[in-house]
Amino acid sequence: MRQSGATTDVAVPSSADVGDFVALMKPRVMSLVLFTALVGLVVAPGAIHPLTAFTALLCIAVGAGASGALNMWYDADIDAAMQRTASRPVPQGRVAPSEALGFGITLAGGSVAVMGVLVNWTAGALLALTIAFYIAVYTMWLKRRTPQNIVIGGAAGALPPVIGWAAVTGSVEIAPAMLFLVIFTWTPAHFWALALVRKEDYERAGVPMLPNVAGDDVTRRQILFYAALTGVIALTPPAFGIGGLFYTVSAAVLGIVLVVAAWRVFALGAGPAGKRAAGRLFGVSIIYLFALFAALLGERVLALAGGVSGWGG
Amino acid sequence: MNQPDDDQREQERRRRARSIAIAVVLGGLVVLFFVMTLVRLGGNVANRPL
Questions:
Q1: How many contiguous H segments (helices) and E segments (strands) does chain B have?
Q2: Between 1.10.10, 2.60.120, 1.10.150, 1.20.120, what CATH number should domain A173-313 receive?
């Protein structure tokens, strides 16, 4: 097992640019987190002042950025060994590990405190839980130890809609938990598709992803299972009061698209075609989640614009 | 020969950029807290003993 590169460093003048600190926050990951949180916030029953909603989303974005920075601090050794991540600011030496650590802790503490004071403490506590889970449970504990790392660690990425919901209602309920489950079951198919493509990278870094530990065949079977499970789970939110007919139809169509992409990975097996299919599934899975939540958002916004408080007319 | 000067200038430019970014963020936080206080107080801002 590779030991973390998290180290202290001698104080030297920082050579980091503002852009390096932006990169520490993993802006692309942040966009999906922010979007799913926005949907959780919009579909929640009740009213929220637009500025309070903006503050909640800002805190979630900054909290996600904090998680990214702390992850890059702890995983600098892994990032340096992987082609995909070698150009990140810490392995490149543009940001010192201690700077990344300080930046991450400041953002984490700040985002949780502002969320608690200006929005509500349920949302603040959930944000703190998300950051702590991502760093302590996923990054520090599971990532280097088990191929189930991204399955369990996926809980952190699945929480943003619940935080968005809590920002409005001040409570945690079963309905947003269904949105949590959608992202939770989606995560393995998404990351294992990437792991199939980047197997050598993970091998070099010593990260025990499923293809490296259990082999490609098992991974392809598991991907198909989780893709099908995601497709089914995505149909359940309307039963809990989230989403109407438009969402249900969209979820069904998108589910078929996701399962077909996963099936292609399974059926094509080893070889360049199979690898291409895995790369395509990775892209399809991102579009799937965006489109699924966009359907929920679109339907809710239309309902609100029409002055209808409930779902489905 | 002027390589160290260039390096130092670049270092200073980056430090200034970081300082400006921190100033903007802190200023933004002040504005956010001020506006959010108004939002939370709402109409109650005038509801106090005179």
A1: 1, 0
A2: 1.20.120
CB contact under 8 A, B17 and A14: no
Q: What is the pTM of this model?
A: 0.90
- Of B17, B29, B40, nearest to A17 by CB-CB distance is B17
* B14 touches A: beta carbon within 8 Å: yes
**Residue A276 contacts by C-beta under 8 Å, 6 or more apart in sequence?**
none
In terms of Cα–Cα distance, which of A1, A27, A238 is closest to A141? Answer: A1
Fold assignment, A19-172: Tetracycline Repressor; domain 2 (1.10.357)
* Per-domain boundaries in chain A: 19-172, 173-313
Asked whether the beta carbons of residue B33 and residue A118 sit closer than 8 angstroms, the reply is: yes
Question: What's the rounded Cα separation, in Å, for the pair A45 and A101?
Answer: 38
Q: pLDDT means per 10 residues in chain A (313 residues)?
A: 56 80 93 95 93 97 97 94 91 93 97 97 98 96 93 94 97 95 97 93 91 93 97 96 94 98 92 90 96 96 73 42
| Residue % of chain B over a pLDDT of 70 | 88
Q: Chain B residue with minimal CA distance to A114?
A: B33
Size of interface A-B (CB pairs under 8 A): 33
Contact between A98 and A10 (Cβ < 8 Å): no
